[in-house]
Amino acid sequence: MVVSQTYQLKDYKTDTHNTWCPGCGDFGILTSIQMALAEIGVPPHKVAVVSGIGCSGKAPHYLNAYGFHTLHGRSIPSATGMKLSNPEMTVIAVGGDGDGFGIGCGYFVNAGRRNVDFTYLVFDNEVYGLTKGQGSPTMKKGMKAKGMAEAAVQDNINPLALAISSGYTFVGRGYALNPKATAQLIAQAVSHKGTSFIDIAQTCPVYNDLHTKEYYTDMVEGQPRMYWLENTDYDAVVHDPTNAGEVVEKKLQAIGKAYETGRMPLGCYYKVDVPTFEEQIAEGRPNGMDSILNPNLWNRDISKLEAVLR
Amino acid sequence: MDQVSDVLWMLAGPQGGGINSAAEAFAKALSRGGYRIFTGIEYHSNIMGEHSYYMVRISDKQKRNLSERVHVLVSLDEESILGNHHNEWPSHHGHLKEMVPGGVVIYDGALKMDLSGKRQDLKYIPVPFDDILRKVLVEAGRGAEFNSLRVMTNSVAGGASAAALGLDLGIYMESFRGGTGRRAALAELNGQAAKGGYDFVMEALGGAPAFNLVKVDRPAKAPLLLRGVHACALAKLKAGLGFQSYYPISPATDENVYLEANARAQDLVVVQVEDEVSAINMAVGAAHGGKRSSTSTSGPGLSLMCEGFGFASLTEAPGPVLFLWSRGGPSTGLPTRSEQSDLTFALQPGHGDFGHIVVAPGDIQDTVEDSYESFNWADRYQMPVIVMLDKKIQSGYQTVDDLGFDKLPPIDRGKLFEPNGDYLRYKLTDDGLSPRAIPGQEGGIFWVTTDEHDQRGHITEAADNRIAQMNKRMGKLDLAAREIPAARKITKYGPADAEITIVGWGTTKGSISDAIDVINAEGGPKMNFLQVRLMRPFPVAEVTAELTKAKTTILVEENYNGQLGDLIRSQTGITVDKRVVKFDGRPFSEEELIDGIKTALSSSETRIPVSHLLP
């Protein structure tokens, strides 16, 4: 990828006081978002970052871009409204695993059905940090992180498999403590036309004492736990979106990867290029895409609508 | 035979059987013919089969409510006449008791009904709808199409009704004119079917109609015949609505679907979403994004939207405008019936102290004005607005000559950002309004957060900032109270020097206006009507001035205990003397309201609940 000459990482930084804990994985993800934006070269004022509630929900304050720190679990509807209201913006929704897959799971699933052009990044640390360490929907049954009274009785969901079956057109996984490679993945996701989703494995040094930096970089049967799919012969891309057979085959392949045990694949699991929600509603309209872009709509002619009522 | 200038025609039968389209076609023909129409429909939360009835009030001068004086009842099922007494808790007792003496009951001749012991002062005419249509089709050589064209029995019923009412059949026939080819052939068949029904009833009545409906002139230009849904949606389009999100819910769905159906040609984005939480958050996102944005729902939906509503207010979003189409509550309540029980809730739809505007239009004209102007308010005061409507105005058609779009104020988008160095989205200003940037503008980057925030939009829990930002946000309500013209706050009707003032809000406006016209015409102490239209910020001075003029004040509301009465007391300290309330899920009829007001004046009770639907 060509590095943009126009913008640098610092252009997307703010000097806002940061309240994340020392050593938090969120810092790595924040850096990767800034690197990705610099790489794409989108001006800061053309970016809207929308978040929910939680530690990661504060990310927009640390990014020099239009920032919308919304309600718990509601980043996706807010981001959808933002994009459909102002389609020239590059919209990125961010949030935690509790925010996205607990209180916001209905929106996570339904966003996949629409394919509005925005990117959703989940900072996945398997715990509710701000409320002091309860297990989240991505914590596996039987696990007991140090803030939990008992081991988890409820089992975890698989965000990647859920995203693929919900219809996301770009699905991937990154790692907070590998910001350079994760930035590349985020840049791909943001450049993708449609709803893209990246689950980013994130360490919480305060409350997740199970899935730590050491765990993620451990060796599994003599090989590093984490590996990048792009370094294998895995082909995530649907080459002919009109071929239903290929679509299903690539989805099943991606879900298989999402359930891989032991090792942890990173990178793009699945990608298909199909028309976005915006393109679909604009199609065939008298004013085409302009009909979605124009915010100044008060000179409408409604005489035909009135005539029907006479 | 005496001439009648005000009749009620009722079409009753099983839901899903084409009652709406038949009644609406009849109403439209008469509206085009110069009659003034006011309609209402009662139906169950059911797709098919339950009893529903459509009322069309026809007069030479515009009526603003329905009456219980049914002149002609067209009955397509037994229940319309006999009630559903086979149910443990009958939902109604037949419509015969609503009929005027000499009224005509036209019913499907195929129904074998025992009418012994029923009112003897009515004319019961069994009409063989199917046979009449079959004969018309056979004569036209299309007898084999009977099943696919059976909907034309509606035209038989229309023709039969015209004969009973003394309506010129030509006015009804006019509605079938037009079209070419297949359409023209169908129009011809409909006309024949109507004539068949007309001739049959005329013969049964001995050659003269049962009523002599006043003749009116056909206007040069057909007036509008529309519902609150249309008035609201058209005004929203005029206001420049760019984004609407919704989750299907009665009785809000019709407005959403009407906009959705016209979105393509009107450059509008409408999204049907997964729940009301999504709907409000999308609408808030869209408002911040720069388009004029709204969402439409009912009470249960608003319950889910509270969190997002507070988000809009705290972040000073320019909207959304939330259209609240009320129904009977609480919980799922009475999904297809009308009630005014969401006022208290709409005034505080969420936790914490926050500002928003609530306006309650009373009729079609108010609906046009308030639906439009609410977007100016949302932009100017950077806060969400609730426009309160209900099932009654949602579903009732009425004749309107002009919606008055040319009289609306200009578009006001409020204070907008201009690049001038360091930009503060929540800058403290003298009037509390901060210039707002629209995402995408260079130099306009801002942050919003659902936490308390500083002038830049970043989180802070500092006490001095909290006080300053709270004063800024809440102070905008005082500004709105000063700036919104008095004509949008209250409306007065009737003699200014009346001893008695009736107070109400929302869609009882027409019902109260009509009722006091009737009572005032009878002589006795004069009454006038105070409509409270702006609910928040509450027009304290205007309401106080009006209520202190009257000797007696009577509150009229379609809810259990009079929510506006409580609001008036909390805002002005004035206790309205009497409360006439109705909470059976059906709007006041003219007679119910007159009874209620008269009872309020004669009774020592302060709360007078009314319902004419009791057995």
Topology (SSEs and partners):
The complex is a heterodimer of chains A (310) and B (615).
Chain A: H1 26-40, E1 47-51, E2 66-69, H2 75-85, E3 90-96, H3 97-103, H4 105-114, E4 119-124, E5 127-128, E6 134-135, H5 159-166, E7 170-175, H6 179-191, E8 196-201, H7 213-216, E9 219-220, E10 223-224, E11 226-228, H8 244-258, E12 264-271, H9 277-282, H10 290-293, H11 303-308
Helix pairs in contact in A: 1-6, 3-4, 4-5, 5-8
Chain B: E1 3-4, E2 6-14, H1 19-32, E3 36-42, E4 51-59, E5 70-75, H2 79-82, E6 99-108, E7 123-127, H3 129-139, H4 153-165, H5 169-174, H6 181-204, E8 212-213, E9 224-226, H7 228-238, E10 241-246, H8 253-262, E11 269-272, H9 276-289, E12 292-297, H10 299-314, E13 321-326, H11 343-347, E14 357-359, H12 364-381, E15 385-390, H13 391-395, E16 398-400, E17 447-449, H14 463-483, H15 486-489, E18 490-493, E19 500-504, H16 509-521, E20 527-532, E21 534-536, H17 540-549, E22 552-557, H18 563-572, E23 578-581, H19 590-602, E24 607-609
Helix pairs in contact in B: 3-4, 3-6, 4-6, 7-8, 7-12, 9-10, 16-19
Question: Could you characterize what this model shows?
Answer:
- The complex is a heterodimer of chains A (310) and B (615).
- Chain A is an alpha/beta fold and 310 residues long.
- Chain A has one domain (9-274): Thiamin diphosphate (ThDP)-binding fold, Pyr/PP domains (Rossmann fold, 3-Layer(aba) Sandwich).
- Chain A has eleven helices and twelve strands.
- Chain A has helices at 26-40, 75-85, 97-103, 105-114, 159-166, 179-191, 213-216, 244-258, 277-282, 290-293, 303-308, and strands spanning 47-51, 66-69, 90-96, 119-124, 127-128, 134-135, 170-175, 196-201, 219-220, 223-224, 226-228, 264-271.
- In chain A, strands 2-1-3-4-8-7-12-11 form an eight-stranded mixed sheet, with helices on both faces. A two-stranded antiparallel ribbon of chain A has the order 5-6.
- Chain A is globular and about 75 Å long.
- The mean pLDDT of chain A is 96.
- By secondary structure, chain B is of the alpha/beta class.
- Chain B folds into three domains: 3-213, Pyruvate-ferredoxin oxidoreductase, PFOR, domain III (Pyruvate-ferredoxin Oxidoreductase, domain 3); 225-407, Rossmann fold (3-Layer(aba) Sandwich), CATH 3.40.50; 488-609, Rossmann fold (3-Layer(aba) Sandwich).
- In chain B, 36% of the residues lie in helices and 20% in strands.
- A seven-stranded mixed sheet of chain B has the order 11-10-12-13-15-14-21, with helices on both faces. In chain B, strands 3-4-2-5-6-7 form a six-stranded mixed sheet.
- In chain B, strand 22 (552-557), helix 18 (563-572) and strand 23 form a beta-alpha-beta unit.
- The chains are: A alpha/beta (310), B alpha/beta (615).
- At the A-B interface, strand 2, helix 2, helix 4, helix 10 and helix 11 of A face strand 9, helix 7, strand 10, helix 9 and helix 10 of B.
